[in-house]
């Protein structure tokens, strides 16, 4: 397929920490799958990360390389996907500035994701304006590339709705179809729980297993993993629902018949946690070992990794500049040749 006829994906992450198994299941695996059939742009959202990290510049800066290493380690291929860094594409900021006039403050305050994040961060009435308006900057990220598909978790769906509102308002305001509406692509697999059994794996909850984890860390995480608290003796019947070890086996073990057997045996009684955990640990170690090896290889040459990011950024900038030019022309913002 010609690169220019492929549907376009825009996706990305805030570089605020190393990526974990939750990211792997929720997005990284799909990016590796999508990169052949889509023209895929992957955004390292360092500027968006600052909307709630002002002053923590070192953290954001240092995690850019970590996230790049995670991307390359899982098999995102810079020859197929364009990986770029947000702060070095000023066209995105310009688009944001114009789009802000198409969005009301009350609409932003009603964005369910923003509302929840404001609550979680305890901003109350002291909301940084940049944080409140990050959905608009996200609309710029997406529309600059005329993305048709945006892979996101459930919690990001309001961002896509708001992006499409901006698209419709802008196109109506200039009476031309310049910007393109996009579709959210939500992964079929459910969200991966934390190793402690809570609904979400997250760095801040301290229940994550990082993609860069050492073999020892993987081993320790599996040993700590939440199972069935009432499964005290091996002979006791155990519960598989809410049992993280089985949830992870469902997510990562391709031999589904074997997992079904283990579940049946566990539910009947006679299968100990230790044994199931050993099966899971073998699976996770086998899966993470090649990722860790590739990560280490890339980590030995950070300059090369940053060069990949630089080249991707140049390519992304050319596309964003084209869209910005169309947007400015449509608004009559051309004065000189
Ligand atoms: N909000 C995303 C996150 O928190 C990162 C992001 C920024 C993004 N701009 C985007 C995701 C555009 C999809 C599309 O990880």
What would you say this structure looks like, in words?
The chain is mainly alpha-helical and 337 residues long. The protein has two domains: 3-192 and 302-331, Rossmann fold (3-Layer(aba) Sandwich), CATH 3.40.50.620; 215-296, Tyrosyl-Transfer RNA Synthetase (Orthogonal Bundle), CATH 1.10.240.10. 54% of the residues lie in helices and 7% in strands. It has 14 helices and five strands. The strands form two sheets. Strands 1-2-3 form a three-stranded parallel beta sheet. A two-stranded parallel sheet has the order 4-5. The chain starts with 7 loop residues before the first strand and ends in a 7-residue tail after the last helix. The mean pLDDT is 95. Tryptophan binds at residues 10-14, 43, 45, 48, 138, 141-142, 150, 152.
Say what the CATH topology of the largest domain is. Rossmann fold
CATH class of the largest domain: Alpha Beta
How many DSSP H or I helices?
Answer: 14
CATH superfamily of the largest domain: HUPs
What is the C-alpha radius of gyration, as a whole number of Å? 22 Å
Which keywords apply here?
337 residues; mainly alpha; Rossmann fold; Tyrosyl-Transfer RNA Synthetase; 2 domains; 3-stranded parallel sheet; two-stranded parallel sheet; 14 helices; 5 strands; elongated; binds tryptophan
